[in-house]
Amino acid sequence: MATDASSSLGTSSITMSSLSEYQLYTFTEGDLEGPVVDLLGKPVYFLSTVRNERGILESTTITRSSASGPSVAQIRWAQEKVTIGTSKSSVPIKNFLQRKIGVPSSKYHFQDENKSAFYWKEERCMTPEKQLVAQYSRQKKGPFSALPEQPATLLVADSYAVSTSVDYILTTAVIMEMRRKQAERSSGKGGEV
Which long-range contacts (CB under 8 A, 24 or more apart) does 62-69 make? Predict the structure, then answer.
């Protein structure tokens, strides 16, 4: 399922003329399940989420291309831990994707396996030099069943679209979306988890 990039942009920060400098990834079945495809509809990642008997999230596994593809990351929501990249050990999510003391609390910093630094502020991933690396657009559900859903998308700048960087950007985008949903849910604004 290919998605028209212009219709999936929820932002004015990336113009149509600069869109060719980005790779588009579409979460076809939701932000925690199913294939994540490129602009041509080719599966690049696969997300699989396990819930307990009460429907509470246990874990999300991110693999390449298909459910049986090589593992990229595992997020264990209940333990608040993540295993990513070539690391065989898990780390607390708060250490992997952290707020820095002295910076606005809406910025969450992380490093990829090459120690390149990034941060998420709202739905944008930036470098410390404030260069836009990626933009996440949330899944939108139509107000009536006759209107189609708009799937979540992730635009990643071509210069960062190498697999290991995208692994980290996509994994942190999923964690950030879950944080947004949990915050909305606790404030009574919805945020289906």
Answer: 62/167, 62/170, 62/171, 62/174, 64/163, 66/35
Distances from the Cα of 147 to the Cα of 9, 46, 143, angstroms: 18, 26, 7
Chain length of the chain? 193
Beta strands in the chain (DSSP E): 22-27, 34-37, 43-51, 57-64, 71-76, 81-84, 91-92, 107-111, 117-121, 124-126, 132-137, 152-157
9-59 confidence digits (pLDDT tens): 444 455 544 667 899 999 998 888 999 999 999 999 999 999 999 988 999
For the chain, how many helices (H) and strands (E)?
Answer: 3, 12
Q: Which residue has the tokens 């992997």?
A: 96
Helix (H/G/I), strand (E/B), else coil: 28: coil
Distance CA 25, CA 184 (A): 24
More confident site: 193 or 178: 178
Cα dist from 140 to 50, 126, 135, 182, 192, whole Å: 23, 23, 15, 17, 12
Q: Is the pTM of this model over 0.85?
A: no
The secondary element (H helix, E strand) that includes residue 7 is helix 5-8
Which residues lie closer than 8 Å to 183 by C-beta, 6 or more apart?
A: 191
